[in-house]
């Protein structure tokens, strides 16, 4: 007998890619269980399946930076903050943060299917009674070409795991000008915000004009530090909540374009903010 749950939870995280660098990702979590029926006629109560899996993914990969430790140019060492992780290709980045901000995977590359198998294996270490096999799969939300943006960030004031300096999202973006959906504007922003790091100006340290951007903040989970090429980041005048991202896009767009601008920015799957601005 098999039991399935589609869209059981959503994962929001960042991962390091040999071609794209720091990539923000959001995935639906789907689950398939195999096993035997109990006397209650169930394989495993849906009411128990969901918190069991959600607790596991939230406590492991969710809101972390996935690091392929066997990729050439990746190094992991201990440091005062916890772990210092350095990447050299396709561009250099260093992050110092508490251990819980990273998921170290002894792989050369990261891919969604493999993460799904990894999580399935972890869950199978302590399977519920009567469950003989677990298949967890990660599924991208289908987003039309040109309407998708992806970023990484950290929210130092968040009491939960969003305070981690490099977690990210893959999301929809819609922009209207004077009530009309403006596909050219959307495409412009999606290209500008592809695989970008969004930094809060308040967290920037060091020289304002060099090629390297350094960020630092302290949050409830510990000290977070990061350096990356300035061209891989966009600096916002505020914190990078989705409300402020939507407002920043609206304000910046209104500065360049006449008319009433309305921005609907998602943060991951199924949630986000709407902001307006006009010139
Ligand atoms: N009003 C806002 N609340 C939160 C924001 C935000 O921008 N505006 N942002 C975050 C984090 O960035 C976080 O990455 C989003 O987390 P979310 O997936 O909602 O949080 P959970 O994992 O706890 O929720 P699930 O239901 O488990 O997906 C947080 N809040």
From TrEMBL:
Domain of life of the organism encoding this protein: Bacteria
E.C. designation(s): 4.1.2.50
Catalytic reactions of this protein: 7,8-dihydroneopterin 3'-triphosphate + H2O = 6-carboxy-5,6,7,8-tetrahydropterin + triphosphate + acetaldehyde + 2 H(+)
InterPro entries: 6-PTP_synth/QueD, 6-PTP_synth/QueD_sf
GO terms for MF: 6-carboxytetrahydropterin synthase activity
Pathway(s) of this molecule: Purine metabolism; 7-cyano-7-deazaguanine biosynthesis
Family: Belongs to the PTPS family. QueD subfamily.
Entry protein name: 6-carboxy-5,6,7,8-tetrahydropterin synthase
Organism per entry: Zymobacter palmae
């Amino acid at each position: 007998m098999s039991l399935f749950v589609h869209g059981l939870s959503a994962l929001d995280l960042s991962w390091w890619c040999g071609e794209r660098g720091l990539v923000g990702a959001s995935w639906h979590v789907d689950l398939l269980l195999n096993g035997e029926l109990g006397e209650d006629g169930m394989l495993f109560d849906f009411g128990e399946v969901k918190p069991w899996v959600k607790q596991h993914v939230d406590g492991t990969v969710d809101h972390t930076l996935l690091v392929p430790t066997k990729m050439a140019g990746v190094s992991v060492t201990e440091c005062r903050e916890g772990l210092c992780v350095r990447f050299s290709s396709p561009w250099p980045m260093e992050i110092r943060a508490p251990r819980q901000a990273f998921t170290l995977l002894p792989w050369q590359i990261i891919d969604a299917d493999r993460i799904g198998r990894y999580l399935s294996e972890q869950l199978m270490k302590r399977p519920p009674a009567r469950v003989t096999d677990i298949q967890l799969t990660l599924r991208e939300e289908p987003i039309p070409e040109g309407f998708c943006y992806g970023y990484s960030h950290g929210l130092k004031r968040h009491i939960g795991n969003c305070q981690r300096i490099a977690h990210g999202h893959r999301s929809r973006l819609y922009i209207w000008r004077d009530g009309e959906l403006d596909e050219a504007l959307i495409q412009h922003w999606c290209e500008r915000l592809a695989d970008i790091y969004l930094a809060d100006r308040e967290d920037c340290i060091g020289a304002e004009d060099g090629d390297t951007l350094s960020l630092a903040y302290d949050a409830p989970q510990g000290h977070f530090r990061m350096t990356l090429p300035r061209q891989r980041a966009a600096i916002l005048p505020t914190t990078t909540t989705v409300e402020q991202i939507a407002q920043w896009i609206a304000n910046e767009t209104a500065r360049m374009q006449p008319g009433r601008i309305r921005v609907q920015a998602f943060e991951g799957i199924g949630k986000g903010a709407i902001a307006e601005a006009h010139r």
